Amino acid sequence: MANGSSLYKGQYHIELRDVDFTKKLKLSALFSLFQDIASLAAEDLGYGIETLEKKYKVAWILTRIRVDILRHPTWDENITIETWPLQPSKIDFDRDFLVKDHTGAVIIKAASKWVVMGLNDRKIKRTESINIYYPENRTERAIEGKFGKFKDFGGLEPAYQKVIGYSDIDFNGHLNNSKYVDYIMDCFLPDFHKRHPIHTIEINFNQEALPGDSITLYKDISKMDEHELYVEGINQTDHHTIFKSRITIH
């Protein structure tokens, strides 16, 4: 971060572990990179994971994200990710991202919303609870427009069931946001992904998923002709919706 700026930049190299069978960056790996740089940026501002845990007894939680992919990065490529925060509302902290290739061209845009959750009571806290300060008031957005509510198109069908295990959870003890993306991608066969690369994805994370929870994934492909897909996850324990996602494909 430059002195007096809220903009944070990170350099990343796309490794073999980050790509799928087409040698393109997996969407879940992209989400992990976003999480990584968001954490570093928050730490740089003085509100990193450990500070929030020790001083405020809260944790950063991603609640909504939209990603627009202009081009998928490929194996062995070097990319730069830029991220910056917007002024918080009463509940949400907005953070945007731009991914650039080695020439400086923007290849991915993303906008996200975060909250802080109490580590003991698992309840969402108001933004003022951590007294966050940004050195500048940035107003530009990576993606224009507001997050919207969305639902299936009327053709919902079960895809598969998944039990949350050890490898799915993160340091907060719940299902990591990048794993949700893997679950969404697994609703479709590899040949489908080869023929229909993801253009945009928007996810609403509605409720925590914890170890032992059984999640049924449902998909709606009834608007395939319009290049739109819908996927949601339902917790079979309480039948609450864990997440909803809207996807556009090429």
Number of strands: 11
The whole-angstrom Rg is 18 Å
Helix content class: 10-25%
**What number of domains?**
2
CATH superfamily of the largest domain: Hotdog Thioesterase
What is the CATH architecture term of the largest domain?
Roll
- What CATH calls the topology of the largest domain is Thiol Ester Dehydrase, Chain A
Provide mean pLDDT, rounded. 95
User: How would you classify the quaternary structure?
Assistant: single chain
Output the structural class. alpha+beta
Family: Belongs to the acyl-ACP thioesterase family.
GO molecular function: acyl carrier activity; fatty acyl-[ACP] hydrolase activity
Protein name: Thioesterase
Pfam family, one: Acyl-ACP_TE
Summarize the structure in words.
The longest helix is centred in the first third of the chain and has 18 residues. Strands 1, 2, 3, 4, 5, 6, 7, 8, 9, 10 and 11 form an 11-stranded antiparallel β-sheet that branches. A hairpin with a 5-residue loop joins strand 10 and strand 11. The mean pLDDT is 95. The chain is 16% helix and 35% strand. It has 2 domains: 123 residues, Hotdog Thioesterase (Thiol Ester Dehydrase, Chain A); 93 residues, Hotdog Thioesterase (Thiol Ester Dehydrase, Chain A), CATH 3.10.129. It is built from 4 helices and 11 strands, in the order E-H-H-E-E-E-E-E-E-H-H-E-E-E-E. It is an alpha+beta fold.
